[in-house]
User: Fold this.
Amino acid sequence: MKKMKILAIDYGDARTGLAISDSLEILASPFGVLHEKNSDRLIGKIKAVIEENGVEEAVVGNPVNMNNTEGERSRKCVFFAEKLRQSVEIPVVLWDERSTTILAHNLLSQADVKSKKRREIIDAAAAAVILENYLVFRKNNSEKL
Assistant:
């Protein structure tokens, strides 16, 4: 399995969090939050991040319901991932992100990040949690990939 830089995307209607791995797929670092409601402009900004950072794969968080059904938020993420897939020349993977925002909130609380600052970075932190989970999966399933 080839190691590569991977971009995780926590897609939202107004704010989209990003995280990028190192090229050895060891670290998942929050990259930032894009404030964009227009999906075409958002995809343009994500394409720029991909090109400027040498990203070779993108992972879009998919908030599947706890009972494994697809709700409205999940459908929006699936649609966004498909639109992104048509706009970039790298693989775009959907990844189950159940509870990542809750986990990110808990991690930031434990780190004593104040609520105002937390609001500014929660989406990037959630993207980092998505990416960490995906990197663990890749490491544990490298012979299958």
